[in-house]
Design brief:
- The protein is α/β, with parallel strands linked by helices.
- About 35% of the residues lie in helices and about 20% in strands.
- It contains 13 helices and 18 strands.
- The chain has helices at about 10-25, 50-65, 75-80, 85, 105-115, 160-165, 175-185, 210-215, 235-245, 260-270, 275-285, 305-320, 345-370, and strands at about 1-5, 30, 40-45, 70-75, 95, 120, 145-150, 170, 190-195, 225, 250-255, 290-300, 325-330, 375-385, 390, 400, 415-420, 425-430.
- It has a six-stranded parallel sheet with strand order 2-1-3-4-5-6, with helices on both faces. A five-stranded mixed barrel has the order 14-15-16-18-17. A four-stranded mixed sheet has the order 8-7-9-10, sandwiched between helices.
- Helix 7 runs parallel beside helix 8 (about 210-215) and helix 8 runs parallel beside helix 9 (about 235-245).
- The longest helix is centred in the C-terminal third of the chain and has 26 residues, at about 345-370.
């Protein structure tokens, strides 16, 4: 039988989809090129925002209408966090959460035996170990995402993820090594380490994220190591010192801010204030002068006044972010913030989002201009309209070079490029010492 996946949300979900695909392949299933040719269609869900939930449910309904004979399976964070809601999605034949996914082939076998709608969402008890489901391929064959951490212990007042993912747990260094060796054997040259709360990697045994990066760096033929999203609390000077000694480490840091207003941060139950966050950014730039620091920026949290928003936006502007993901607060049932008073009207949220997006645009353009004149190694990933080779610099900057002087694809290769100009989204340059016949 053939399967197809729709994957919503973050890099961790991309990793989970890769794990489930590998599990299905080992059980005799095969991947379909599209949903229309699949016997089983999976929806690996996210539940960070209410709008995301709505998009998911709409997609499930449309898919059921388009492919009435397919078996629809709902999995992921939305299914885990809101089992009562997902149980009411009649279009889904099988529902499972984020726990015990190793049972997926068995659950499918049972479904095909009974053809009975079933929900199999198992509640987290806080004692789970990291569920290692090995995989060795990703949709993008120039970089491999490896989930090394799952769960979160922070319980920020707005966030449902600790309920959807359980408590912090980490993949062992030995399993990291095994996984990366498989990726390298399959031709990947960049490894992206991912987690729900990646900075808490190794906390169970007194380890750290730097341990994981050093382990990957020891493996031959790893050319780049990049990190997924981070919370700021545990990015210490000691960890940064260790990371700075690793030549393969890419200085791109996505450090979640959420708000630059201390009053709002307190109501969010974040574990830092704006001064501590600014110090972390300063410390990163000391060790990585040409780094890119990107962030998430929330507007319209309950109780956020006009003055609070202006303070938050001014702080974000001073941080000199390379990119900002700006979004409106979305109440999640089951979280503390959902019951807070002083809700911000939707029209005000929208206005604040537009103002913050304008700042984000200006800051991104400013950052890209700072890259002009630099010579950087670029990992090329794809061509675009037969005009450009496109890749990323170590700090994540998108680089385009003309493809008219090279006859073959540069995909999955690294060349040095001198950056000559920038626009609102990327930089353009010329290759340094590249063979025109390559």
């Amino acid at each position: 039988m053939r399967y197809y996946f729709f994957t919503f949300g973050c890099k961790v979900n991309i990793c989970d989809t890769a794990s489930m695909k590998a599990l299905l392949n080992r059980s005799g299933y095969t991947a379909a090129p599209d949903a229309g040719t699949a016997d089983i269609i999976f929806f690996n869900s996210c539940t960070v925002t209410a709008s995301g939930d709505n998009r998911l449910c709409t997609a499930i309904r449309k898919t059921r209408k388009a492919y009435p004979n397919a078996v629809l399976v709902l999995t992921g964070c939305y299914a885990q966090a809101y089992p009562e809601k997902t149980a009411a999605i009649s279009e889904a034949d099988l529902i499972l959460g984020t726990k015990d996914r190793a049972r997926l082939p068995k659950l499918l076998e049972e479904y095909f035996h009974t053809h009975t709608h079933r929900q199999n969402v198992i509640t987290y008890n806080g004692k789970e170990l990291f569920e290692f489901l090995p995989y060795d391929s990703m949709p993008d064959n120039t970089r491999a995402f490896l989930k090394i951490q799952d769960g979160c212990n922070c319980f920020c007042s707005y966030c449902i993820i600790p309920y959807a993912r359980g408590r912090c747990r980490s993949l062992s260094l030995e399993k990291i090594r095994e996984s990366v060796l498989r990726f390298i054997k399959n031709g990947y040259c960049e490894i992206v380490l991912c987690g729900i709360n990646l900075g808490f990697y190794g906390m169970e045994w007194g380890g750290s994220l730097a341990d994981a990066v050093e382990t990957v760096a020891e493996i031959p033929n790893v050319q780049r190591i990049r990190l997924g999203s981070l919370e700021p609390e545990l990015l210490t000077q000691s960890q940064l010192q260790r990371l700075a000694r690793i030549p393969e480490f890419c200085p791109q840091f996505h450090i979640s801010l959420q708000s630059g207003c201390d009053n709002t941060l307190k109501r969010m139950k974040r574990k830092y204030d704006s001064q501590e966050y600014a110090l972390i950014c300063e410390r990163i730039r000391q060790f990585f002068p040409n780094c890119a620091i990107t962030t998430d920026f929330m507007v319209g949290f309950p109780g956020e006044s006009d003055a609070d928003f202006e303070e938050s936006l001014a702080f974000a502007r001073n941080c000199r972010f390379a990119s900002m993901h700006v979004f409106r607060y979305s109440p999640r049932p089951g979280t503390c913030a959902a019951d807070l008073p002083d809700k911000v009207p939707e029209a005000v949220k929208t206005k604040r989002m537009e103002l913050a997006q304008a700042v984000a645009k200006n800051e991104k353009e400013r950052f890209l201009r700072t890259q002009v004149g630099k010579v950087v190694p670029v990992l090329f990933e794809r061509e675009h309209d037969d005009k450009f080779h496109i890749g990323h610099a170590p700090n994540g900057t998108i680089i385009r070079i003309s493809s008219k002087n090279t006859k073959k694809s540069l995909r999955n290769t690294i060349f040095y490029v001198k950056i000559e100009e920038s626009d609102a989204n990327c930089c353009y340059g010329s290759p340094v010492h590249i063979d025109a016949n390559s």
